[in-house]
Amino acid sequence: MSSMNELYRQVIVEHFKNPRNKGLKNTDEYTKLRLKNPSCGDDVTIEVKIKDHHIEEIHHEGTGCSICCSSASVMSEVVKGKDIEEVQEVIEDFYNLIKGEDVTDEERLDEAMAFGGVAQFPARMKCAILAWKALGTILAGKSGEEDV
Ligand code: ZN
Asked: Which of 9, 10, 79, 111 shows a CA-CA span of 20 to 30 A to 2?
């Protein structure tokens, strides 16, 4: 079990140091949403290009703690190329994971499973879900800027 925790810790550190899909394109093809988490100072913007009900491209930008930034990077990899309805299920699953509840599909969450340990640290839950919440809000048809 401890080696699993170590593996998960490495995933989080690795994505924080080498974030995937980082940097916004800021073109008309993208829908963009910015969310802030004042309790930690996290500030993340997610932009997605949706084509044929799939997430064709997704990028993130922002500043924050390692949990927040790493989570945005992992999310971008997990959801890219997926059907929108499936992405909504994945987001639900991630929320369940962070709350310490059962998830329906661990394999589909892939590297996002690394954030399961956050359930033991309620103060960090907002950090972990910020990017996911931004994406979920975009898929619900919103864009712009919001506080959580
Ligand atoms: Zn944070």
From this structure: 79
Report, as an integer, the average pLDDT of 108-136.
95
- Our count of domains for the chain comes to 1
Q: How far is the CA of 33 from the centre of ligand 1 (A)?
A: 18
pTM: 0.94
Q: Which domain holds residue 46?
A: 3-147
Element (H, E) at 116: none
CA gap 47, 27 in Å, rounded: 10
Ligand 1 center to residue 91 CA distance, Å?
A: 18
Checking if the pLDDT of 30 tops 90, the result is yes
The enclosing domain of 11 has a CATH number of 3.90.1010.10
Mean pLDDT of the 20-46 span: 96
The alpha carbon of 62 and the centre of ligand 1 are apart by a number of angstroms equal to: 11
